From TrEMBL, chains A, B, C, D:
This is Pyrophosphate--fructose 6-phosphate 1-phosphotransferase. PANTHER family: ATP-DEPENDENT 6-PHOSPHOFRUCTOKINASE 3 (PTHR13697:SF52), PHOSPHOFRUCTOKINASE (PTHR13697). Homodimer or homotetramer. Its main location: cytoplasm. Residues 2-298 form the Phosphofructokinase domain. The record marks D104 as: Important for catalytic activity and substrate specificity. The gene is pfp.
């Protein structure tokens, strides 16, 4: 039995932990061999492989990124993409494929598995936590910890100068990182893509915070957009909700707050710091368990499934379920956080 | 409506986050007043109170420990304990009580609620994660992160000297911290209280690690005990499994490994570092949600319940369920980790 | 003896540690009383004071920011500024003043002391490390640690996608943070305000890094500027070197690299995260010693001086020396780092 | 020109940064070749070598430990040790040797250089900071940061239970780690090997801290010893001051404090956590500069010297100076800290 492994889409802390766990268990418990494909779906498409055995995965557990590289290559859009993948799997004698990725990567795996009979097992990954059919994806906890630490640091400098600090965090279509880090960091305003914000209301919260002699921290997801049409946009494209995409909402919002409240405001854009570096303990544990269970699925010939966290259990769900619909923040959950606004 | 709040048992990162969230929501959304009781059950027993309002809870979210103090006082063992508590609740006009604690603290709340009609809501807390009826308790994730960081640091020093490093982590009756931090840290041996260990087998794992030119990390829960009778004990008491309690299993094990394998071994005892300091983002989020939901339970007059995490939802469970049985590590889960031993 | 204390200019981790040490030593060893002035020079100018005694400074050692608040108020520009300060010092019976701040704050202290006979002792503070007459200022080590951690995190994500990551760090006039964090983080390009950079040379370094199959990290101080006139400027103002000031050099540079090399580039702007939050151990130690020695200077009636770090000793230097000239990065030191470029 | 490199004695964060910097500069600027010797002086003694070139040192900057391994092998005690080293240097065509280590390792380098004409350059290393002739050694700042973080965490748990927390930190003969981390962490008692402590005085400080309703943190260096003869010793050996060596002073002291004050006390023994893992930014910067300057010394044929930090400069000092005398804590510096005791 030879198992292929690939990692697709944006990288995320914990990818290496999945790879390591799968290889350790596959080799030791079942005598499997492994082949790594380089750069997501580009690997099986182009026949670009790397050796993958126990020495290759030693010491990678705490390392961010992915030893296999990643890309956004979509084989469904490549000429004869599926046929070339099947040919390369045959050529390299790969009997089953573990695809680690987000919506796009797993969507390809679902179609390969369901429509073309390629034996795939999916492992969910996204720092945005916006994949359906799993309680959490690994990478998310790490991102939230990093954003929370940044918010912690900003409180004291904000208060020393009685300034507004705006932190722009990741989350183009879903506000999970903003919501969790905002709650954990004690932010006074949390803005998410799921709900357009009212700049005047934001300014009201900012001002009520100053009234109790504390300085406000505003956490804004990169995909959050204001109500109304007052925004000057950098790129003019449309976002997934059909309204115009913002580039640089953090900086824009800081300026708007300054203009309307007369208070100084500063912006921090954490960017890729949120997706790099060593995974949190939770993400290493989750990624490791996902790797182990992916191999169990291979052994059971349970293809077309994704491993998934449900409570404290790792279970299997159809790949198609995972990619059917983006998991966005429940309005009730967002409302729950509202008690801390202002 | 006046709500009393107390924190009992060993302290744990996140207690202050619960208190803050409960007070913020209670005051702002429902107009409740609050009374803090000092040092767990000692507070209502002795009538020792502290004022608790929004200014009192500002800025405490990221702080470890508890602004209310804690103790292991058991009112059921105090003379007229229950009567004195009821009298003090009446005296201070407290209509409902939020008890934040572990097995012992919540056990008292269960009896007060079920047998004496005192309106109690419980909030589960233990860094050991050994409370039934909730997926996780806050404090646990922080402890696991701290232990994992320590293990990360020990790998490089172990390998530079080709030594064994033994890390003793918390967990008197349950091995959750050892299991999670051991998996997350890439330990080569993980020993938990639920399963007596065979020193000779441990030495085998240690030696097989050296054979691949890596140095082994052994994570041992403070409550883990060896098979057989070869241990020299410091205090001679019996542990919860009926076998003699070890004090200093880490140090003992390091010596035993040195003696049997001829390799150098060193010990780190993390101790209270695991339970102090700022909570992880996950624990702040969980504790905050527990605080909010405890107030919802009070508003619904849902007494005799504990708030509990189920997947990503916070639900209510009978207090009695939470304290019926220690939640220990499932043997299957422990077996899953075995692939990394050696 | 009554000692006034104020903190001026941009806040910086360690300010509270200075205040605490000064108060502890003053009260305990010499029986001094203390008066805090709020918001830098605005405090003595406006007569805005806060009580300052041992209970007020308990627990503030690890906290970022300043309990006294800060501002950039310059009393030399205020009408009758000096006279009002002298009147307020008399009114509040303040016999000596400890001024904690950077170039501007200490410049005022120097003039007050030298020209108007106000008994001042200075304590140097700037995260930028650009004050002459001291080896280091506190706050700098913390900022460098934060920037270095961010760079560490960016390496793995850069390499997973073979992208350029540009990190913009603080340093408007001096490149100390960029130089130290760039060296510590293993950056492949470090750009500082002291030396205009050649975009084409930067692109050369970027490309040579890709050639060895690693992804480049570019650290750029916010005050760094390119050679030539190709920059589109946001604000058009002139910087301290007489060339036009850049706003957003990080983002500009990332775009320029993308355009010229065809490689993807991403930007992180750390912003105020670098100056907030708990100080590093070094900064707490340095700030504490500065606080103790400032009190010794008061006791010795050694006014008009600043405490300063020389090797491992804290010494006194004339206030005027500290503010005579910005301490910029020595070209030799910058050249030393060049071996790691590309 | 071929340069040999070895790392001896206890490992320490920053060793890899020295190796990397030396190799990068040697190869790129001067065209040198390198040979790594394994496990300190055992390498040249036994002729155990590893290849050392630019690819071998990529990515090791942030990694703790040493890629060359370490040991305490003393060639002066080995039969024909010096002759065998000279033979192996000749055999492997090594023209100069960079020895990175502490007192013992550099002592050997000094004798090899001064008495036997082996061209050696020393690089000082010790987490204990007890080497003369340099302001700081790398590894020390990392150890102090780790110990300080642990102390930070212990404050909140100590105060929640009004307990004494005793932290045993490294420092067998010198109290630098205890002094710096104790000051930075806000400890209430700091005990160092240089000055025997009076248990009764320690208990007095502990009690005076409780009187202001705060819980005391006691930082004790592993080599600290009490006055009088009341200690029960574990190993009975003599320490460097001629008094009997303590094993486990932290645990002993906690018990003694409990016995004398009636307060609960707990102990944390940080152990090797202090010397493992990624170096702080300061240590990476210092280690990198030491590596660069060691190569400059080789190029200048300046043998028999050690690179050393003086203020912000790296200079050369005779190897013999570095090892002549242990650098212990100046009594005046220790007295300075006394204002925070109790």
């Amino acid at each position: 039995m030879r198992v292929g492994v690939l990692t697709g889409g944006g990288d995320c802390p914990g990818l290496n932990a999945v790879i390591r766990a799968a290889v350790r268990k596959g080799v030791q418990d079942y005598g499997y061999s492994f082949t790594g494909f380089r750069d997501g779906w580009r690997g099986p498409l182009a026949g670009d492989i790397v050796p993958l055995d126990i020495p290759a995965v030693r010491g990678i557990l705490p390392r961010g990124g992915t030893i296999l590289g990643s890309s956004r290559t979509n084989p469904l859009k490549a000429e004869n993409g599926i046929r070339r993948i099947k040919e390369n799997l045959t050529k390299y004698e790969v009997d089953a494929l573990i695809a680690i990725g987000g919506e796009d990567t797993l969507g390809v795996a679902a179609r390969l598995s369901d429509e073309y009979g390629v034996p795939c097992v999916g492992v969910p990954k996204t720092i945005d936590n916006d994949l359906s059919a799993t309680d959490y994806t690994f990478g998310f906890d790490t991102a939230v910890n990093i954003a929370t630490e940044a918010i912690d640091r900003l409180h004291t400098t904000a208060e020393s100068h009685m300034r507004v600090l705006v932190v722009e965090v990741m989350g183009r279509h879903a506000g999970w990182i903003a919501l969790h880090s905002g709650l954990a960091g004690g932010a006074n305003v949390i803005l998410i893509p799921e709900q357009r914000f009212d700049v005047q209301q934001v300014c009201g919260w900012v001002e009520s915070r100053f009234k109790v002699r504390y300085a406000p921290i505003v956490v804004v997801a990169e995909g959050a957009t204001p109500k109304g049409g007052e925004m000057v946009l950098k790129d003019g494209s449309l976002d997934s909700f059909g309204h115009v995409r913002l580039s640089g909402v953090g900086e824009w919002l800081a300026k708007e707050i300054e203009r309307r409240t007369g208070k100084e405001a500063r912006t921090t854009v954490l960017g890729h710091v949120q997706r790099g570096g060593t995974p949190s303990a939770f993400d290493r544990w989750l990624a490791t368990r996902f790797g182990l269970h992916a191999i169990e699925a291979v052994r059971d010939e349970a293809y077309g499934v994704m491993v998934s966290l449900r409570g404290t259990d790792v279970v299997r769900v159809p790949l198609a379920d995972a990619t059917a619909k983006l998991k966005t923040v429940d309005p009730k959950l967002y409302a729950e956080a509202g008690v801390f606004f202002g």
